[in-house]
Amino acid sequence: MSDSKINMVAPPEGVVGEGFFATKLNDVVGMARANSLWPLPFATSCCGIEFMATMASHYDLARFGSERVSFSPRQADMLMVMGTISKKMAPILRQVYEQMTEPRWVIAVGACASSGGIFDTYSTLQGIDKVIPVDVYVPGCPPRPEQIIDGVMKLQELVRTESVRRRSSPEYQELLASYNIK
Amino acid sequence: MALEAIQIQEKVNEAFGINVFNYNQEKDIFSFESTTDSITALILFLKNDPDLRFHFLTDLCAIHYPDNEFSRQFAVVYHMHNWYENKRIKIKVYIDGENPKIKTISNIFRSSNWMEREAYDFYGIDFIGHPQLKRILNMDEMISFPMRKEFPMEDSGRTDKDDRFFGRTTDNY
Amino acid sequence: MSELLLPPEHRYAKRIKEQLNEDGSELSILNLGPTHPATHGIFQNILLMDGERILEAEPTIGYIHRAFEKIAENRPFYQITPLTDRMNYCSSPINNMGWWMTLEKLLDIEVPKRAQYLRVIVMELARITDHIICNSILGVDTGAYTGFLYVFQFREKIYEIYEEICGARLTTNMGRIGGFERDWSPEAFRKLDVFLEEFPPAWQEFENLFVRNRIFIDRTVNVGPITAEKAMNYGFTGPNLRATGVDYDVRVAQPYSSYEDFDFIVPVGKSGDTYDRFCVRNAEVWESLSIIRQALAKMPEGNEFHADVPDYYLPPKEDVYTNMESLIYHFKIVMGEVPIPVAEIYHPVEGGNGELGFYLVTDGSRTPYRLHFRRPCFIYYQAYPEMIEGALLSDAIVILSSLNVIAGELDA
């Protein structure tokens, strides 16, 4: 291992002894989840092209444990919404979100997904947080691949520290209820 | 250029007389107007005439002129192109504001199918005889015709642009 | 499944009820899109299928309609370039330059030769990125991921050149009325030289991977062919039209920005099928490289990069901060308080996908009265249902990606 260039994630804090390692389940699950986030790219416009660059050889998102791009919402953990979402598209986005299984996280990549961006018009949804809850917002129009990766890393941080019980907490149920998602 | 503007004018004038008028050269494009009734015949003539050969419909779009007199409130603009002689023309047809209607040319140029639907979607212009005239870009449930000048650009439901958040209220302007 | 998808009065639903094949099998309905990963964008097609074969298709578009034309009516002229960027985002400099040239035509501004050549270089780079994306993604759709990974690094190199010129990668918002915002740095020219050196062998290799590849040929030859007559009737332009054998190219027919100074051929195909479209785009990349080399060789001496039109060209930023006069001009131009003639003009440029036209109607005010974009994708995508009739489902995907339909341009 010593001469390998692969960076391993450090184990969570815990007690090490001969032949055993004791730590909190939360931390282990968080670490495992954070480093195997399967993205579901929901690319509609320009930001999607930058996402292609992020996935391609130069930037290579696979280094962060997101090797497998899952195009099926049912097997994805991280919904990456890239590009303008129009009002015609909003119900579809919502449906995709509903099809994802828990735990699920959402990144709004780019100004349009975060707030509608420069398209302050009758046909554009003014930010996807009007229809689904969002965990990380990435600014930029479009954001550079570095920024997208930064957003993913921020999300990894969130995932790592998330309690395994969060998804069944009343606060979370309330959040979903406020979006009318069952 | 072999095909001169004056030649086009003579030919069209010969065939359509007073139904086509207002010939003029706008920058590099020769343009004229037509009445709503003769537009399909005119387009067909321009396409099939052995000298004119305007065989390519470059563009079709509509314009709203709410300040014009009533009979000229909408306009449909056709851009045609003759690739043999490399000559472009523009035809403009004014339509009345109450119930804008014009005959479709989608049976002459198939490319006009969606362009006419777009013009309908944006302006509510009825293309008579169009095979499938319904909204194309906007949602079917929409009732307004958004590109008409009276409709605002911004979405009325937007809350973050409230003037009060910027310290502007009606009394402190 | 089909009951969930379509209302019972839909014609496909009716047809399923009526038609039963001899062997007792039924027709079926497949909903392709709007978020299908293989469609590279947001298009919905409802397909009526007999087994694996497509009988009919009904496209729905408008899923990212952003109302460009309405926004354009509410923005001063300088603020419209960011919109053009976001139309065909694979080749945004062409859109930017097209818009500036439209305004220059409106205002009768003569751009210096050197600025025109610089524009040609950047437009051809944009064409290369556009074709790289289209062709490498076509490779991905036919099962060859290698080509995509291989040539995408060169797209990054082009983006680095853009960054040297204007500071942005994808949505460049490049240029000004009359030229560029600043002269190109020596670093930009150096990067361009490196690109011209490194890219051709890679592109040759990419081409070798595909052109005589048995699998690729089987997947693309005679898939989605269209005749020249039909293509013209459907309003095809650009590489997709040239693949059918018609040599119409706006750069040749109506040269703008000094394209007449350069010697290049317009590659044409023969049958208008997916393979021809691929080959035409490949050949166009070689022509673009040759144009860039010619432009560099013929580049006039000096450092002129914009026309001398103080009424419309924004003053240099450092003067704006220190000089009253410049500040006033900057303000006037940005707020659109400069005289704009009343006119109607149409200006076409050869975009990545075909004739990109700007139809501009002004009434002398600070915003356009009407601005219509002739978006090539929007016009030729109409032919898609007809092109996939009778094709296999997997062919439909290949045809779509070979047409290079960009959702942003399609829906405006």
UniProtKB/TrEMBL annotation, chain A:
Reactions performed catalytically: a quinone + NADH + 5 H(+)(in) = a quinol + NAD(+) + 4 H(+)(out)
GO biological process, any: aerobic respiration
GO molecular function ontology, one term from the record: NADH dehydrogenase (ubiquinone) activity
Pfam families: Oxidored_q6
Cofactor dependence: [4Fe-4S] cluster
Signal peptide: none
Topological type in the membrane: Peripheral membrane protein
Domain of life: Bacteria
EC number(s) from the headed UniProt entry: 7.1.1.-
Entry keyword set: 4Fe-4S, Cell membrane, Iron, Iron-sulfur, Membrane, Metal-binding, NAD, Quinone, Translocase, Transport
Every NADH:ubiquinone oxidoreductase-like 20kDa subunit domain range: 46-155
Keyword Membrane found: yes
Annotated [4Fe-4S] cluster binding sites: C46, C47, C112, C141
Compartments where found: Cell membrane
Gene3D superfamilies membership: 3.40.50.12280
Cofactor comment: Binds 1 [4Fe-4S] cluster.
Annotated Gene Ontology cellular component terms: plasma membrane; respiratory chain complex I
Enzyme class: translocase
Function: NDH-1 shuttles electrons from NADH, via FMN and iron-sulfur (Fe-S) centers, to quinones in the respiratory chain. The immediate electron acceptor for the enzyme in this species is believed to be a menaquinone. Couples the redox reaction to proton translocation (for every two electrons transferred, four hydrogen ions are translocated across the cytoplasmic membrane), and thus conserves the redox energy in a proton gradient.
Protein family (similarity comment): Belongs to the complex I 20 kDa subunit family.
NCBIfam families: nuoB_fam, PRK06411.1, PRK14820.1
Subunit structure: NDH-1 is composed of 14 different subunits. Subunits NuoB, C, D, E, F, and G constitute the peripheral sector of the complex.
Name this polypeptide is given: NADH-quinone oxidoreductase subunit B
Automatic annotation (TrEMBL), chain B:
GO cellular component term of the entry, any: plasma membrane
Region described as Disordered: 153-173
Bilayer topology term: Peripheral membrane protein
One function term, GO molecular function aspect: quinone binding
Assigned keywords, A-Z: Cell membrane, Membrane, NAD, Quinone, Translocase, Transport
Pfam families: Complex1_30kDa (PF00329)
E.C. code: 7.1.1.-
Bias (Basic and acidic residues): 153-166
Organism domain of life: Bacteria
Subcellular location: Cell membrane
Similarity remark: Belongs to the complex I 30 kDa subunit family.
Subunit structure: NDH-1 is composed of 14 different subunits. Subunits NuoB, C, D, E, F, and G constitute the peripheral sector of the complex.
Protein's job: NDH-1 shuttles electrons from NADH, via FMN and iron-sulfur (Fe-S) centers, to quinones in the respiratory chain. The immediate electron acceptor for the enzyme in this species is believed to be a menaquinone. Couples the redox reaction to proton translocation (for every two electrons transferred, four hydrogen ions are translocated across the cytoplasmic membrane), and thus conserves the redox energy in a proton gradient.
Designated name of the protein: NADH-quinone oxidoreductase subunit C
Source organism of this protein record: Flavobacterium segetis
Lineage per the UniProt record: Bacteria, Pseudomonadati, Bacteroidota, Flavobacteriia, Flavobacteriales
Gene behind this protein: nuoC
TrEMBL record, chain C:
GO MF term list: NAD binding; NADH dehydrogenase (quinone) (non-electrogenic) activity; quinone binding
Protein's UniProt keywords contain Glycoprotein: no
InterPro entries in UniProt: NADH_Q_OxRdtase_suD, NADH_UbQ_OxRdtase_49kDa_CS, NDH1_su_D/H, NiFe-Hase_large
Keywords for this protein: Cell membrane, Membrane, NAD, Quinone, Translocase, Transport
Reactions catalysed, as given in the entry: a quinone + NADH + 5 H(+)(in) = a quinol + NAD(+) + 4 H(+)(out)
Membrane topology: Peripheral membrane protein
E.C. code: 7.1.1.-
Subcellular compartments: Cell membrane
Entry superkingdom: Bacteria
Membership in a protein family: Belongs to the complex I 49 kDa subunit family.
HAMAP family linked to this entry: NDH1_NuoD (MF_01358)
Function: NDH-1 shuttles electrons from NADH, via FMN and iron-sulfur (Fe-S) centers, to quinones in the respiratory chain. The immediate electron acceptor for the enzyme in this species is believed to be a menaquinone. Couples the redox reaction to proton translocation (for every two electrons transferred, four hydrogen ions are translocated across the cytoplasmic membrane), and thus conserves the redox energy in a proton gradient. NDH-1 shuttles electrons from NADH, via FMN and iron-sulfur (Fe-S) centers, to quinones in the respiratory chain. The immediate electron acceptor for the enzyme in this species is believed to be ubiquinone. Couples the redox reaction to proton translocation (for every two electrons transferred, four hydrogen ions are translocated across the cytoplasmic membrane), and thus conserves the redox energy in a proton gradient.
Protein's name according to its UniProt entry: NADH-quinone oxidoreductase subunit D
Originating organism: Flavobacterium segetis
